[in-house]
Amino acid sequence: AAAPWFSFPWMTTFPLGFYPPAFIPILVGFVVSAIESMGDVTASCEASKIPSKGRDAESRIQGGLLADGVNSIVAVFMTTAPNTTFSQNNGVIALTR
Questions:
Q1: What is the dihedral of CA 16, 20, 24, 26, to 10 degrees?
Q2: Which residues have a Cβ under 8 Å from the Cβ of 10 and sit 6 or more positions away?
Q3: What is the pLDDT of residues 19-67, one digit of tens each?
Q4: Is 9 helix (H, G, I), strand (E, B) or coil?
Q5: Structural contact between residues 83 and 75, judged by C-beta atoms closer than 8 angstroms
Q6: What is the model's pLDDT at position 10?
Q7: Cβ neighbours around 74 below 10 Å, total
């Protein structure tokens, strides 16, 4: 009756902390990953022969960045590596259109 409904048991075994000197390198990594994701989504648009400029394309890029961010946050809480988009899929899209 006193047990919590939802918990992360490994947080008591491996407490979360913040290491300030690692902030800038990790921030740079996330910015590079975001730029890569923008390029991958744009290349996917071009390979799919849909507009890669304009309001729809910007919406797709925002959706891709949001999905990467949410997936990375979930991955961190599950103690796995963050997720990124894969540019290899662009070649598959181009081959199968």
A1: -20
A2: 79
A3: 889 889 888 888 888 888 898 899 888 888 888 899 998 999 999 899 9
A4: coil
A5: yes
A6: 66
A7: 12
Helix axes 23-47, 55-77, angle to 10 degrees: 140
Token digits of residue 59: 């919406």
Q: What are phi and psi of 3, to 5 degrees?
A: -75, 145
Collect contacts of 52-60 with beta carbons under 8 A, ≥24 apart: none
Cβ proximity of 36 and 84 under 8 Å? yes
14 Cβ contact partners less than 8 Å away, ≥ 6 residues apart: 79
pLDDT category at 11 given cuts 50, 70, 90 is low
- Tokens matching residue 31: 């910015």
Return the C-alpha torsion angle 75, 77, 81, 83, nearest 10. 30
